[in-house]
Records
---
Amino acid sequence: MTLHQIYHGDCLEIMKQMEKDSIHLVVTSPPYYNAREYSTYKTYQDYLNFMDEVIGCLPRLLVEGGYFCLNTTSYTEKKVMYPIPFDLLNICTKHGFTLMWDVIWLKPKYTQALWRSSDYNYKKPYPYSLYLNCFHEYLWICRLGEQNRDINEEALEASRIVGNTIEIKGKLKDEKILRYSYREWEFEVAKPSKEKHSAAYPIELPSYCIELFSLKNDTILDPFLGTGTTSKAAMLLARNSVGIEANKQYFELIQKKLVPDHKNMYQYYSQQEIDNMGLKEHLVEFKNAEFITPSKYKVYLKEELPTKVKNARNTKIKQEVAEEKKIQSSIDAFSKEE
Ligand SMILES: C[S@@+](CC[C@H](N)C(=O)[O-])C[C@H]1O[C@@H](n2cnc3c(N)ncnc32)[C@H](O)[C@@H]1O
C-alpha cells in the first residue's frame, strides 16, 4: 500500500512542520518568477529569497544522500532575461546539494511561432531585435551530501528498472534503459487546455526521476504540486508521496488526476475507514490538510517484463510444472502398487 498526502497551503509553512528525514526524493517545478498568473513577486530578488527559504527547508526533510530533481527554465520579460535555473543551482549548492546530472528536457520543435510577434518585429526581423524561442528546460539532478544513500541489495533488486525489449540492428535492447541513458530527455509538453493549468509538466518527467533516483515504497515530495503530476507518478511507481499546493483552485484537478484509472489497481478508503486506521491523527499534525488518499497498488499489473525475461521465466515455470507432474505420477503409481 502506498500513501499519498496532499496539503493545501504555503509550502514553507507546511514543510517546517514535517518530520525530519521523512523524504527520500524531491521532484518539483517551482514558479518561474512571474512567468505565470499564479505568481506576483515584487522583484526578482524577492523571488530568489523565497526560493532560498524553500530550498533551505529540504536538507532537514531529505535523508542523507537523497536526491532533489529541480525543473526550471529562464524567463524573459521586457527584454530582460532572468537566469532562473542558474541562480537556483547556486542556491542548491549553498544548501549542501551537489549537482549530479544536468538534464535537458527537449520539447518537440516548432510548436510555437519562430519569433514572438508581440514585443518584437515578427515579420521582418532585424539583427539585435529577435526573440529567440526555446524548446528546452533544465532539470538539475542534485544529491544531498557527498555519498549515495545506504541501500540494501534486496530493496535495490525490488526496484530494478524493467522496460520493453526492442530489436535494434538484430540485437535485443531494453527500450526504457536506452531512453534513460541520455541527459537529453525528449517528451511532449503537457497541454494547458487539457490540464487546466498553464504550467503542468508531463508525467514522464517526474516518472523518470522517480524510477532513477528512488526505491519502491520511498516517499517523494513535491512542494509545488500544481495539478498533482508528481503524486500520480509516485502512485503508479509504487512510491508514497507528499504534495503541497498553495492554490485551492487546483485541488479539484489534483483529485481528478489521482482518481484510480484502473479499478483493480487502487483501493480508496472511505472517511470512516481512514478514521479507523488512525490516519486522521497523522493528518491533523498539519494545518490546512485537505484529503488523504491511501492507495493499494498491485505491482505486477504495471510491471512490463522484457520478452526475453518473460520467456525464460515461462520456460522455468513449465519445467517446474513438468517436474511436479512427474513426481505426482510416480507418487500415484506408488500408492496404486500399495
Ligand atoms: C510550475 S507549477 C507546478 C506544476 C506541476 N508540476 C504540475 O505538473 O501540475 C508551480 C505551482 O506552485 C504553486 N505555488 C506557488 N507558490 C507556492 C507556495 N508558496 N506553496 C505551495 N505552492 C505554491 C502554484 O500555484 C503552481 O501551481
Note: The chain has two domains: 4-302, 307-338.
---
Amino acid sequence: MSKTVSLKIDAKEVKVPEGTNLIDAAESAGIHIPNLCYLKGTRSIGACRMCLVEVEGAKGHSVGCITKVKEGMNVKTTTPQIEEMRKFILDLVLSMHPLDCMTCTKAGVCTLQQYAYDQGIKESNFTRKKFGYPVDAANPFIKRDPDYCILCARCVRVCKEQGTNVLDFMGRGVGAKVVTAMDKPLQESGCTFCGSCVDACPVNALLEADRWRKGREWDYTKTKSACLSCGNGCDITVSTKDGGLVKINSGGEEGSAEKYICAIGRFGFDAVSSDARVTVPMVRVNGELKEAAWKEALDLASEKLKAAAGSTGIISTAGILNQDAFVLSKFASDVVRTKNVDTTASLYAEADSMKFSDSADMDSADVIVLAGLNPSQWERVLPALDASTRRRVARGAKLVVINSGETRASSVATVNIAADEASAFAQISKALISKGKKADNALASAVSGLTVPEDAEKAAALLAEAKSPVIFCHPSLFNAARNISLLTDIKVVAVPFEANARGVVSLGLTTEGKTYNEMVSGGLNVLYAVGEVPVTKRPDVKFLIVQTSYMTELAKQADVILPASTCLESEGTIINYLGKVKEVEKAVEPAGESKQHKNILIELSKIMGNPIKESAAKMKSAFQVKEKPAFKPFEKKQGLDIDPSEFNDAVNKSVIYSSRLAWLKEVMTEA
Ligand code: SF4
Ligand code: SF4
Ligand code: SF4
Ligand code: FES
C-alpha cells in the first residue's frame, strides 16, 4: 500500500496516494484542472501548459500533470493570472484549428470546444493559419484529419505504450505533424486498427471513418457491456441511435492498463445488421432450408430430440453468457437427459484450470509471467492481454516470458526463458525454495535434483521480491504454474481463448459423456449445436439442430436452424479471464425473430414437457466452488494445443466476413 498524502486544493482538504499528480488529485476532489495533453495512466509530457496551477512557496507556476502531490501542499487551480494564461494558450491553439463546430462530429465532446466555451473565446486574436494537410481516409475504420490536430501527442503515447508504435511526430513546433513511418496510410504502417488513438484524441483529428453526419455524442444512447469475441472479454461502451448501432468504444476505466479494445471489438458490430444474420427459424423440407414459424421449428426439434433414444449430443461455444450456459446445462441434464454436453473450451482447457484460476488485477501487477502464451495484437490472439501487459511494462512492471517457441512479447521482457514451460516452473520453484520459501515435502522432493539455469534464477528473484505478481499461463500449464503459488503469494490465471470459458465450465458445461471432438466426429442420432461453433462440415448425424446468430457453414447443412440474438442483443454476465464478472447489457433489440439462447431453450423445454426454471442463486453458487492448491506434477497437459489464431478466426468468421473487418483480412493477405 502506498502512503497517503494530505494537501489542500482550492482550500479543499484532499487525501491521495503518494505519487499522484495534481490533475488526478484535484479530480478526486471534484476539481477539474483544464488540460489538453494529459492522458491519465500514460507518461505526462507537459506540452500544452493548460494545466498550470499555483503552488504556495513554488517559483512561478507549476505544471499540474507533471507535479506530484506533497504533504501539506497548498494549491490554487484558478487565479486571474492562471485564467489569463489559459486564455492565451487556447487563443493560440484556436488560431491553427478549423472553427468548424457547426458541422464537426466531435462537437459536444471536444475538449478544445469546451475550454473555448468556458473562456468565452469565439474567434482567435491571432492571424489564422491554415495547413491544408491531406486527410487519410483510405481505410474503412479510422479517418485522420491532421488539420484538426492540436499536437497533444495523446495518440502517439497511447499507441507507443501498448507497443503498436505506429505514430510519431514529424517536424517541430507549430509545423509538427503526427505521422506514420514514411507518412504512409495507416494500413501500410503496421496499424492494427484497434482505435485506441481515436479514444484518446480530444478533438476531431482522429475519428471513426463512418461517422460523418451519423449523429453526435449527445444523440446517442450509451450502453456499457462486454465484447465476447475472444478470451479477453473487454469492457465496451456501445453507442446507438434510433435503435441502430453507431459505434463501439473501449469501456475500460480511464487510466487503466486494460482500457483497450481491438478492431473486432470496435468494428465487428457491422455484422449484427448484415445479410449473414439468421433472423427467422428454418427447417429442411425436401432437402431445402425453408423459413418456418417458431412453433414449427421447435416442434420438429422436440420430436427429434425425444425420438433420439439417448443418442443425443449438445455442443456449444464458450462465448455464451452465464445465464444461457446455466439454462443449457439444465436443458442437457433435465430435459434431454444426456451427459453428452461439451463446449469448445475443451479444445484448449481442462475444466479445473477454468474453475480454479485466480482473479487478478492487471493494474496492480508488478511482475507478470506469460507462460506458454503468445498474445499478439497483430495476429489478434488475446490482443487485450498483449496491450495491457505492454502498458504495465511501460509503467514499470517486469515481464517474464516462458515459452518454448517464439513470442511477440519477448521483445519487452526482462527475463526470457526459451525452454519447456513446465520444466521452467519446476526450476523456478527450486530457486524460490533456495531463497528461503517454504515448500511441502511433495514439492520439495519433486525439484530437489534439478539444476537451475540463470534465467530461471532471475525469474525467481523477481517473483520473490514482487508485491503483486501474476502468472498468465496456457490452460495446459495450469497445474505446473499453480505450484508456484504454494511457495509465494501469487495469482495464477489460466487464460482461455473464449470470453466466458470460466463461466460456462463452472456452470457445468463439461462433459461426463462424449467430448466435443467425439460428438463432432459423428455417430449420434441428434446433434444440437449452440453458437458459432467452428465446425464447417456436417458431422455424420441423423438430425442436426443449429442455434446460431449467423448463417454459418454448419447452419447451411442443418435440419433445423433456430435464430439466436448476438451478444449486443442479449443480456447477462460473463466471467472474463481475470475472473471479473462483467455485465453484458442489451444495446439493441434482437434482429428479426431471433431470441436469446436461454429463451429458445426454455421454450423448447416447455414443448418437451419439462420447463426449465432460471435460478440466479444456483448460478451464483456454481461460481463459489473453490479448491485449495496442492502439489501436482510439473507437467503440461497434452491434447490442448489448438492454434489460437485459427480458432479465433473460425469462431468469429461470420463477424469478420460480414463486417468491414473483411477489408482488413484482404489487406493483410495481400501484404
Ligand atoms: S489504431 Fe491502434 S495501432 Fe493504429 S495508430 Fe491507432 S492506436 Fe496505433
Ligand atoms: S491526432 Fe488527436 S490525439 Fe493525436 S496529437 Fe493530434 S489532437 Fe492529439
Ligand atoms: S481483445 Fe478480444 S474481447 Fe477485447 S475487444 Fe478484442 S475481441 Fe473483444
Ligand atoms: S495537460 Fe499538463 S501540460 Fe498539457
Note: The pocket of iron/sulfur cluster (ligand 1) is lined by residues 142, 158-159, 164, 166-167, 186, 191-197 (CB under 6 Å).
---
Amino acid sequence: MVSKKPRVVIIGAGMAGLTAANKLYTAVGASLELVVVEGGSRIGGRISTAEFSGDRIEQGATWIHGIDGSPLYKIAGDTNLLISDQPWECMDGTLEDPLTVAEGGHLLTPSSVDPISRLFKNLMDFIQCKLETAEQCLVSGDDLSVGSFLRRGLAAYLELEKEKNATSVGSWSKRSLQQAVFAMHESIQRTYTSAHDLSSLDYNAEKDYVLFPGDEITVAGGYSGIINHLASALPAGVIQLDRKVEKIEWALSGCEGRPVVLHFSDETTMSADHVIVTVSLGVLKAGTSEGSNMFQPPLPSCKAGAISRLGYGVVNKVFLQLNPNYRGDDGFPFLQMVFHPSDSELRNPKIPQWIRRTSFLCPIYNNSRVVLSWFTGQEALELEKLTDDEIIGGFSRTISNLLPSKHHNEISQKFNKVLRTQWGSSPLFLGSYSYVAAGSSIDDMDTLAEPLPKYGGVDLAPLPPLQILFAGEATHKTHYSTTHGAYFSGLREANRLLKHYN
Ligand SMILES: Cc1cc2nc3c(=O)[nH]c(=O)nc-3n(C[C@H](O)[C@H](O)[C@H](O)COP(=O)(O)OP(=O)(O)OC[C@H]3O[C@@H](n4cnc5c(N)ncnc54)[C@H](O)[C@@H]3O)c2cc1C
C-alpha cells in the first residue's frame, strides 16, 4: 500500500494562518500536503493596507506595539518595509500637543486636563502592576472590573478635590469637566481593548498582558507587506481564495482514511488529517452559538464555554479627507474631544450621539489633509450603518461646535470624502479583536488553544490525534488582540504538528 502524505488544511489566510503555513512549508517542504483556504477574496484578514487620498493607510492593524523583540518588526526591517517614498499613516509616530476642547468650544488649559490625565494613567498603571508601591494608589482592587476600579478611583479623587476652589467654564462646572475628561480617557482605553464598556473588562487579566518594550511604530511600506512576505514562500496553488468553510466534520472514520472533512459554502468538500482553525473569536462565537453547527460533533463544553466567556469587540476607523476649501491654522489640529455625557441636558443636539464616546480626531501625520478617528463598541457598529453624507455631516457639525472659529475658516462641510471600516458586520470577522471579559480569564485562551483530540492515547483511542488545532490572536494568553499574538499562535500550532511528525 502507498502511504499518503498527511494533509494539513489551514482555515484563514490572516497573520496566524499564513505564519503557520510559512513555518510548515519552510520546515518540511512538500512532505506535507498543505492548503490554506480563505473565505475572502484577499489575504491578510484583519491586516489590510489601502490608499486614501494619496496616503497609505491601514484599515485594520496599524501599530507594531513595541519594536524590541517583535518578530514582525524584524520581518519589516528585513524586507525593506520600514522605509517608503509615499506618506503613510502615523509616519511621525503619535502626534504631540493635542488641543483639548470641550463641547461648546472651550479650549481647555493643561492645568484642567493634566491632573485628570495623570490620575487616569496612575490608575491604569496600578491595574497593570506598573507602579512600584501600591500605596501610590487611591484604592485597591480585588475582583473588580477595570471600569469599576477606574470609577472608584475617580470618585475618591473628586472627593479629595471637592473642598478646592471651583471655577466653571461656560456651561461646564469644574466637576463635570473633570468627569468628562476622565470619560475621554476611558474612551481611548476602550479602543485599546475593543470593549464597549470597561466594566466588562476583567481586572485581574490586565497585569498579565504583555507588550514589547521600545517604540510603537507603523509600517512605512504597509502592514500588508508582512503578510505578502509570509505568503511569498508558499508555492502557487497552496492558498485558495473564496473558499468559505461552513462546517467542520471531525472524528470521522473511513472518509479517504482522513478524519476531518470541510464543507464549503459552494457545497464542495475537502478531507484532511489536520485542520488549523484561525478564524476570529467572533466567527467562532457565531459558529458555536445555539442553533449553529460549525463543528460536527460540537466542540467539548469546556472549549465552547471559553469561546462564549471571552470578550470580542468592535473597533472601526474613520478616515476623512478635508474639503480643499477648509483652512485652519497650521492645518487640522490633533483634537481631543470632551463631550457632555449622553444623558446630560446640556448636550448640543447638533452633535450626533454616535460621536460622543469618541475621543479624538487628528491628521494621520503632521499637515496631512486626511484626518482619522477611532470608534469602539456600539458606536462603532452604528457607524457601519450610516451613509457617507451622515458621517461627513456629523463630523462637520461637531467640529463647528468644538473648534473656536479663530482656528479655522467657517465652512459647513469640512470634509468631502470618507472611508470607514466595517469589521463588525463583515461575516468573516464579526468584530475586531479579543479581550478578557469580566467572568473569563486568560486560562480560557489556553483552553481555546487546546487541539482536539490532544492525544490519540488510551481514553480517546482509536481517534487520531490533532485533528483540529486552534490558532489566531484570541488563543494567545499574553499577546492576544495583536498581530504578533496571531503570529506566535501560528508558529505554536505549526510546531505542534512538526513535533508530532518528528
Ligand atoms: C481596526 C483594527 C485595528 C487594529 N490595530 C492593531 C494594531 O495597531 N496592532 C496590532 O498588533 N493589532 C491590531 N489589530 C488586531 C490585529 O489585526 C489582529 O489581532 C490580527 O491581524 C489577527 O490575525 P488572525 O490571523 O488571528 O485573524 P484574522 O486576521 O481574522 O484571520 C482569519 C482569516 O480567516 C478568514 N475566515 C473567517 N471565517 C472563515 C471561514 N468560515 N472560512 C474560511 N476563511 C475564513 C478571514 O477572512 C481571515 O482572513 C487591529 C485590528 C483591527 C480590526
Note: DSSP finds twelve helices and 22 strands in the chain.
